[in-house]
Amino acid sequence: MSDVIDKINNLENKINSLELKIDLILQKLDNTIIDNCNRMGNHINFIENVYEKVKYPLEYVTNKLNYKKEYLPEITE
Questions:
Q1: Whole-number Å distance between alpha carbons of 54 and 42
Q2: Using CA atoms, how far apart are residues 77 and 20, in angstroms rounded to an integer?
Q3: 63 three-state secondary structure
Q4: pLDDT tens for residues 51-70?
Q5: Phi/psi of residue 66, each to 5°?
Q6: Element (H or E) spanning 22, and its range?
Q7: Is 21 exposed, middle or buried (0-12, 13-18, 19+ CB in 10 A)?
C-alpha cells in the first residue's frame, strides 16, 4: 500500500511541475511573443505604406534612366 501512495505522490509532483512549466510558457507567450508579433506587424504596415508612396515616383525615375540609357550613345575612349 505504501508503494501505491508513493507512486501517487510522485505523479502529483510531476503534475505540479508540469503545471508550473505550462504557466511559464503561457506567460512568455502572452508577454513576449505576442508583443513582438504586434511590433513586427506595425513595422510591416509602415514599410508597406512607405512603399506605396514612393513606388510610382521610383518607377518613373527608373523608366527615364532606362530610356536614356537605351537611346543615348555609349561613350567609348
A1: 19
A2: 76
A3: helix
A4: 999 999 989 998 888 877 77
A5: -65, -40
A6: helix 2-28
A7: exposed
